[in-house]
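Provenance and format

Records in this collection were gathered into a single text stream. Each protein contributes a sequence line and a token line. The two records reproduced below are adjacent in the stream.
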Amino acid sequence: MKELSVVISHRIPGRIRLRLLKAPRDASKFISQVRRHEGVNEITYTPITKSLLIYYNPSVVSSTEIIVRVGIAFSLEYGNNPVNIVKIERRHKLTPLDYYAATSLLVATLSKLLNFYTPGSAMQNSGNDVKRILSYNAGISTLLSVLNHAWREVKREGIYDPEVISVVYLFNSMVKGNFLGASLITWGATFGRHLAHPIEEHCLLEANEVIDDKNRPYVDVRVRPISDEELVRNPIKFFVAGLSRLVGTTSSKGHQTIFEQVQQMSRKHGNVLEGISRKPMPVYMRLESLKEI
């Protein structure tokens, strides 16, 4: 992480916690600049942890705009130096139901791969029935596990993980009789990333106070994404990404990167935000195409 960084520690509708890797030079001035926007109700800054706890009205201002405004104020305070905005996607603990579904998948897969009976015998017919039951159990337990995962995410974060859309793929496959194969893919696409290390997403924000040719001040803000080669370096994430693409969850709206969230917010405002300081200076957003810095 760069010296000037804003780390998104936690956010739910109406509340967001940000951590600054460097303390503001003037905390009161810094907070007042962010608080000026309508919809920002309360800001608490803790000097020891360098964290900001912000309460806001989500129907008036989005959490993404608050993050951008914090980044702008931070950049201006430190002489227009770029600020690294970091989103960390942390691992979530798997529940007993998730582990049960994984065990059911393992047992069903082993039973299908191993054949101890003579072809055409009564024992083989009985074994086939057992394999069918195990496959059904694996499919149903995986379906329940994914739905439970979605419910827990909505309760905790206010939005479900995009991977739970794979339940549509699983349901359609189960209707066609493909219980085991589809269940393996769905479980991997939904829970595989939680077995890997936290994923970090970065974008770089740089703000400059400018005077136009009519002697009117404004703030020019440039935001650039920083590509991450971690996916290529980590085989688990590479494999999970492949499964996600297979079930069609990679383009989900809920899977937006931090740069895509900023981009969407900027477009809603016509790429011009209201001023962030006491001066009524508009903020012009310039978002560059994806490239590695």
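Adjacent record:
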Amino acid sequence: MMRRLYDFCMKWISSRYGVWALFLIAFVESSFFPVPPDVFLIAMCVAVPHLSYRYGAICSIGSVLGGALGYGLGFWFMDSLGMTVINWYGMAEKYQVVQNYFREYDVWIVGTAGFTPIPYKLFTITAGFVKSNFITFMLVSLVARSARFFLVAWLIRRFGARIKYFIDRYFNLLTILFVVLLAAGFFTVKYMF
């Protein structure tokens, strides 16, 4: 399935809608969508390495604006929509722990979730619910998400065709690694907090 998604992305990015799709995926992932935009960002950067930084910027902006939506879900709609998203990920029992982290570290905890595979959406919704400072939340999100996506863009820009060859050759192994990292992020939230 991941290989088909990768191949689909490689074809779609040559269309005029590829950039909009990247923005939309980054936007919805930050508040409720389960699939991180990294796969699509990587595919786009591999296809056109000289536009990698542009794609990193688009992904960052989409993700931060999606984080603002997640914040709004927590701020205004926690009982209905916010808890629905959290329950869907099976993290309701750990939600109180995440709230306690916010009380101790405020939005600085968002920086960790924004850069790592820890589910960013859980932290965007919680930030709104605990009424963290919105401006600080947006700035921390911008720095963390930009660092993550520009790192991907830089690697592909720097190594270009070698990265494409590496991805094509080791795609199955990289997919497993990506899923393991994603699962580790969910595991961290679910069991370590």
